[in-house]
Amino acid sequence: MLYVFRMKAVLVLALALAGGCGNDTRLEDTSPDGSQPDDVDAAVLDGATAYAMNCARCHGVAGEGIATKGPQIRNPVRGFAKYTVRNGRTMQLGFETGMDAYPEEFLSEATLDAIMDFLAATPKPTTGPELFRRFCGNCHGANARGGRTGQDITEELDKVSEQVREGNGGTNYGSRTTYMPRWSTAELTDAEVGLIQAAIPTL
Ligand code: HEC
Ligand code: HEC
Predict the structure, then answer these.
(1) With the CA atoms of 84, 39, 27 and 82 taken in that order, what torsion angle do they form, in degrees rounded to the nearest 10?
(2) Fewest CB within 10 angstroms: 9, 44, 59, 112, which?
(3) Cα Rg for the chain, rounded, in angstroms?
(4) Do the beta carbons of residue 202 and residue 144 sit within 8 Å?
């Protein structure tokens, strides 16, 4: 696990090694696309850089997920996503590992917000199945029949739109059986919710 505060040491080491062989694995871990942070002294890293250094090796270069390492995390629900980063998570979704917690000493609040901005900037998909995968699939499973909530929602189609607008469990982010986010019409339009509802039985 590489935290932001170790970045300088890692870069110094990596650059020293790169001088010799140009093929240091630590460099690949922190920066899978091969790019280098421009300003390692910046108190707040820009979101794309901080994401690449801390998250990409498990969640993919732009939050799209990696089959064995970590789920897609684009268009995050901020409170819930930040809670997960701060608290980590035990294995619930069947990846190789769970996720370690990132306390504030290692990842400042401002940098975490910048990472969230970076993930939020991803364009939304346009089809029902893709919208479902992006916004619902991590909790309800790829086929909407369980996932970490353990609830089959294919028989609850009439409740989709109310549930999406109201959510459940407030900010009880740690509870996988009660917490569900709510999305405003600015975040998910009625048309998008309709596409998701229509897709659920077909997954
Ligand atoms: C070592 C791999 C690893 C790293 C590094 C990592 N994660 Fe994760 N993350 C995971 C795994 C695995 C899960 C799913 C855990 C489970 O429930 O089984 C997860 C879950 C999440 C979730 C919850 C997704 C959801 O919808 O339930 C968010 C948000 C998240 N990670 C964000 C981040 C961010 C932001 C970073 C970088 C600061 C990061 N992760 C770094 C492996 C990782
Ligand atoms: C962070 C996890 C999480 C996400 C993301 C999530 N849900 Fe849920 N959902 C839950 C939980 C937990 C429940 C059960 C809570 C309850 O009893 O109402 C639930 C219940 C439901 C129900 C059943 C409601 C009922 O009254 O039986 C529907 C329908 C539903 N979700 C649809 C969706 C749709 C559509 C999305 C994506 C737009 C979505 N959920 C995203 C966690 C989630």
Answers:
(1) 0
(2) 9
(3) 19
(4) no
C-alpha to C-alpha distance for 37 and 181, rounded to whole angstroms: 34
Ligand lying nearest the CA atom of residue 170: 2
Task: List, chain by chain if needed, residues with CB within 6 Å of any ligand 1 atom.
Answer: 54-55, 57-59, 69-71, 73, 76, 81, 84-85, 89, 91-93, 95, 97-99, 102, 107, 115, 138
Write out pLDDT tens, residues 2-53.
444 444 444 434 433 333 333 333 333 343 344 444 444 445 679 999 999 9
Contact partners, residue 133, CB within 8 Å, separation at least 6: 72, 125, 142
pLDDT in tens, 53-78: 999 999 999 999 999 999 999 999 99
Contact (Cβ atoms closer than 8 angstroms) between residue 131 and residue 199: yes
